[in-house]
Design brief:
Two copies of one chain form a homodimer. The first copy, chain A, is mostly helical and 212 residues long. The first copy, chain A, has ten helices and no strands. The longest helix of chain A is centred in the first third of the chain and has 31 residues. The first copy, chain A, binds a DNA duplex (18 and 18 nucleotides) through helix 3.
DNA sequence: GTCTATAGACGGATAGAC
DNA sequence: GTCTATCCGTCTATAGAC
């Protein structure tokens, strides 16, 4: 088999594992389920991706790193354009939220599952993931925290952090439940309109973070 | 052994299992871990509580049913007192949030773990739990949805439900991460002040739900 | 690189003595 | 009711043929 087929095989494992991890969690997913779904031999996973933990970490990293890089890049650009004045709140929230909602909308490439999995991995504390996640989010949270803070300088730090926690929680929950939003609301809320969902989220976050 | 000791034994299993399920999830917890932590023989779990799924369901139900009953009772009382006019928003939110935050504060009786577990069980979709959870929350969501709706009658249903989803997500996330809030904020936010956390949540939810 | 076969450990659940 | 011992299935991971 040539390189093309090979790459496709490895990719199929990642896609299959991503969907299963998102749906059933790390402990609820077996390597056998993954290889079966990917139409790959069981031994291929360990050969190419190492053990189960490495595979999981690799899947998360592959999605998360470009997202956080893009966030930092867009924040830097926005700050440059603002020329010293605070970047508008809605712009900040948009920069944070957009990559995840867009990932979710990229259904053909498994983005739905990837977005759900990211949300899930941030909620359920897997021992072997904590160090990676802390390091991965430290720069983003630090820089965005500062930028957001300029819109409510008088707010006590404790209140500010609680609000931030509520907003983050709302976003993770939205990502984790978007796929069944239609069922949960008896058809009133669509689950396939990523743009509308994001607009509502930005509106919500601005209202929460932008009040003294 | 008398009845007293027996009850204590069964109770110890529930407490131990609750903590482990909260920390490691359903699939991440083994019956052996549970019995070891509870200082109980392995076979005792199956004998008294049936299989693993029954045990999990029993733990959730034991905590959730009184909470939802209390919510419905308090809502009915508040509506009676309001004499036809809408129950104030902060009262509604308080009725919904209070039982969970108080459960969390009841550390000696394992309430912290129970609250985390409830949050977790509402996020991760265990197949054998969905029917129970849907039935358990249907009356609460229906009645409170109506009561909340009176404060924003002009708001399109879709927007209302999205806001509700954000608020619920923020609350579940708060419950799931309260225990590490201090670490996540470098000591700025305390994790043992349930009253302050609840007050901030109510303020947050009122702001979100009470704007046209 | 890819497969089969299997090692080796651990899981849930139960039989049967006490 | 409580315990020990164990069955039986499934899991991850790897050895070794091709």
């Amino acid at each position: 088999m040539g390189d093309t087929k090979l790459k496709e095989t490895l990719e199929r494992v990642l896609i299959a594992a991503e969907a299963l991890f998102a749906e059933n969690g790390y402990d609820g997913t077996t390597l056998r389920q993954i290889t079966q779904r990917a139409n790959v031999n069981l031994a291929a996973v360990n050969y190419h991706h190492g053990d189960k933990e490495s595979l999981y970490l690799e899947i998360i990293r592959r999605r998360l790193q470009p997202i956080n890089e893009s966030r930092l890049k867009n924040l830097a650009a926005a700050e440059l354009g603002a020329e010293g004045s605070p970047v508008p709140l809605d712009v900040l929230v948009e920069i944070m939220a957009r990559p995840l909602f867009e990932l979710y909308a990229d259904a053909d490439h498994g983005g739905r599952h990837a977005a759900r999995l990211i949300g899930r991995s941030l909620v359920e504390p897997l021992p072997f993931m904590t160090k990676f996640l802390a390091a991965e989010f430290q720069p983003v949270m630090s820089r965005f925290g500062q930028a957001l803070r300029r819109h409510a300088p008088a707010l006590p730090p404790e209140d500010f952090l609680w609000r931030l926690s509520f907003v983050v929680g709302a976003m993770l929950h939205a990502l984790a439940t978007l796929h069944r939003m239609k069922d949960l609301t008896r058809g009133i809320c669509r689950d396939n309109d990523q743009v509308a969902a994001r607009a509502r989220f930005v509106q919500f976050a601005v209202r929460v973070l932008g009040t003294p």
